[in-house]
Each structure stands twice: as C-alpha cells, then as structure tokens.
Amino acid sequence: MSFLALLATGWSPVYPCHVSPGEMRRYPIGTGPFKFVDFKPNQSIALARNPDYWKPGRPYLDGIEYTIIRDPATARLAFIAGKFDVSWPYSITIPVLKDIETQVPAAQCEVDATNVNRTLIINRDKPPFDSPELRRAMALALDRKAFVDIITQGQGNIGGPMLLGPEGIWGMPSEMLQALPGFGPDTEKSRTEARRIMQKLGYGQ
User: Can you tell me the distance from the alpha carbon of 71 to that of 69, in angstroms, rounded to the nearest whole number?
Assistant: First the structure.
C-alpha cells in the first residue's frame, strides 16, 4: 500500500508534540479548516470555521455540528425525519438506501466504491486447506457475480485486495484480474475445472 497516500488521509492525524494524546482527544488543536468548540461524550461535537486556514476562502461553512448516535438504525430514522443534513454513508445496504430515497425524495443518495471486500478466510496450515490445488478449486468455484447481484443488487464490483480504478489507483487492472482463477467471465468453465481438481484429490460428487 502507499504509505504517503495513507498519511494524507483523515485516518492518519498528526498530533503536536507539546499536547498529550489524552488532551488532544478532549480539546484537539490543529491546522484544519475548522476549530474545535465543544465535545459532549456520546452526544455531540461542535466545530467553528478556522479563519486562519491555509487555503483562502475556505471552508465555506461557518461551522459543523456532529450529533453522535451510536445505533445506525436510529441515525437513519433521524435523517429521514429531517433532523440532520448528512448521515453516515457507510455500512448501508442497497435495500435500505432505496427505502430512504422513497421516504425522503429530496435526499441525494449516491453509491460510491469503497474498498470493502467480502472475503472467504481459511486456515491454510490445516488440512484439507493446506493443499494449494484444493485452494485453487475453491477460488474457481466461487460465483463472484452472484455475490454482487445478491448482496449489492448489482451495484458492486468484482475486485481484488485493492480498490479497482477509476476510484482506486493501486488496484489490479481489470484484464489482469480476470486472468486470476475464478475471476474470469465464464463461471461454468471455472466450476468445471474446480470439479476436475476435487475429483483428482479424491472427492466425489
């Protein structure tokens, strides 16, 4: 992964040396577009526009108030009721998104790519998964398109460990990805090969 790209994200804050991490969690300071105003645990966070921000004319807003709602379902209901302008965009299913669009026609709902994978995890040190051929058969047998069609109602992408382009810049090119076992467009051909491998390893129908 790109170390520089990770450092540039909001998940990699840089703390000042003269302020302890504990103090930063309660009264953060920094050079961002907004300044800390108030924090009420499990209730809210208030920020105000930073007049000394390095980019002229930014930010556009005078301030932001974050309401903390720990239960995602309750947060969605509050958004539907019109209590908030923006809601948490992650960990939401396509059926729930469509329900929000039905109840709040004015809401702007977008589906964007994120690097969230559905992953099959096995212990390759334990039989029978210590067999490379068996693991290849497993990779060939998975119908990845069916996962996309069912879980995301066709609005997901078949990808590898890294986010595909155009959203991701480090992901494997599509033509290279399709050359991997089980990633090609011909699912039945892949499954036929998987069955052949399993029969060779002594497994029956």
Answer: 6
Q: Is 186 helix (H, G, I), strand (E, B) or coil?
A: coil
Q: H-helix or E-strand containing 37?
A: strand 34-40
> Cα 17 to the chain's mean position, in Å?
31
Q: How far apart are CA 137 and CA 131, in angstroms?
A: 10
Global model pTM greater than 0.90: no
Q: pLDDT digit string (tens) for 181-196?
A: 999 989 999 999 999 9
Strand 44-49 with 34-40, pairing: antiparallel
Which residue has 């105003």 as its token pair? 37
Residue 134 half-sphere exposure toward CB, CA atoms < 13 A: 13
Averaged pLDDT of the chain: 89
| Domains within the chain, CATH numbers bracketed | 13-103 (3.40.190.10), 132-200 (no CATH)
| Cβ–Cβ < 8 Å for 99, 167 | no
Query: How open is the CA angle 198-204-205, to the nearest 5 degrees?
Result: 100
